[in-house]
Design a protein that fits this description.
There is one protein chain. The protein is built from no helices and eleven strands. The chain is mostly beta strands and about 130 residues long. The strands form two sheets. Strands 2, 4, 5, 6, 9, 10 and 11 form a seven-stranded mixed β-sheet that branches.
């Protein structure tokens, strides 16, 4: 069973930036698609960004709120996926989760395609 550990969350002022990291256990990290989701109190978990197993394709179009502010990337040598978040807004306040998708999977926005999840890292944006 893969373990995913997120880090990099915290308190930031509106307009600021954060970079979230998610480190995965195991040796076959590079074979899997990865994604970030988020959940604010009282809200459903929502898709943020995804990246294919090869890293060649990313997907953020399903998340209107991203609008060029967030970028997903991966470093397979470090078993890590990142989420760079710029120009943060109060409405970005949420717990952010990384998730592992399918082997040789594409960048899907569908939560049901991700079988392993981290515990989450809290992002709080103040005005």
């Amino acid at each position: 069973q893969v373990q995913l550990v997120e880090s990099g969350g915290g308190l930031v002022q509106a307009g600021g930036s954060l970079r979230l990291s998610c480190v995965a256990s195991g040796r076959d990290f590079s074979w899997y698609s990865m994604a970030w989701f988020r959940q604010a109190p009282g809200n459903e978990r929502e898709f943020v960004a995804a990246i294919s197993w090869s890293g060649g394709f990313t997907y953020t179009d399903a998340a209107d709120f991203v609008k060029g502010r967030f970028t997903i990337s991966r470093d397979d040598a470090k078993n890590t996926v990142y989420l760079q978040m710029n120009n943060l807004k109060r409405e970005d306040t949420a717990t952010y989760y990384c998730a592992r998708g399918a082997r040789r999977g594409g960048p899907s926005p569908a939560a049901q395609e991700f079988g392993s999840w981290g515990q989450g890292t809290q992002v709080t944006v103040s005005s």
